[in-house]
Amino acid sequence: MRGGSALSRARVPERPFSLSTISPRPLRADARRNRAKLLAAAAEALAEGGLDTQVEDIARRAGVGVGTLYRHFPTKEALVDALARAHFERLADIVEAVDRGADPWEQFASAILRCAEAIAGNVALCEIIGGHPGALAAAADGQARLEAATAKLIAGARARGAIREDATVLDVRTIMCGFGHVAAAQRAGARLDWERYLTIALDGLRAR
């Protein structure tokens, strides 16, 4: 997966990752700061420890009390959902920004790799991608953007004979679900290689 392979690591522009989420009503400045600190702390803690991370650890990392956390996020699930929404918006940004002038297979494969690279170092996101119904449902809008952008790449590659005629977004979703499991296991110490898995899985979609 190095050098001139289909899974090129060419950089593509993307909007800065934002953990901001829509709040039901305007917050005071101090409350906004606390919310932002909680989201940043949760992103770091969950990336390192996964979905089993305790809210007490998140609050401690943010420098606030557990009561403050619960005032902003009534449940741990609500906090996970907020992070899932931000992460899927980021993945959609990555796919939408892929170099449209590149080889059609390169466009498709490099977009998937960029998404995988954004996910692989994040235990919680690997677990969510691997199958977490609540968080996935909460991130429905970002997923819709991501799937629409992916569908465009598939259509372009299909029109130029670079991808299987029967390839669909569902195939990509299934591949990424498996990737989430493999990457999470690799982070936990299993002798697995997510890059090798992804190379083999994507190769099955390439036109022969």
Produce the secondary structure layout.
Blueprint: H1 29-49, H2 55-62, H3 66-72, H4 76-96, H5 104-120, H6 123-131, H7 133-138, H8 140-159, H9 169-187, H10 194-203
Helix pairs in contact: 1-2, 4-8, 5-8, 5-9, 6-9, 9-10
Top-tier CATH class:
Mainly Alpha
Globally, the shape reads elongated
Architecture, according to CATH? Answer: Orthogonal Bundle
Strand content: under 5%
Total strands: the figure is: 0
- How would you characterize the largest beta sheet? none
Radius of gyration: 18 Å
Q: Helices and strands, in N-to-C order?
A: HHHHHHHHHH
What's the rounded overall pLDDT mean? 84
Class from secondary-structure proportions: mainly alpha
Could you name the CATH topology?
Answer: Tetracycline Repressor, domain 2
Could you explain the architecture of this structure?
The protein is an all-alpha fold and 208 residues long. The chain has one domain: Tetracycline Repressor, domain 2. It contains 10 helices and no strands. Helix 1 packs across helix 2, helix 6 runs antiparallel to helix 9 and helix 9 runs antiparallel to helix 10.
Question: Briefly, what is this?
Answer:
The protein is built from ten helices and no strands. The chain is mainly alpha-helical.
Q: What keyword list fits this structure?
A:
disordered N terminus; mainly alpha; Tetracycline Repressor, domain 2; single chain; 208 residues
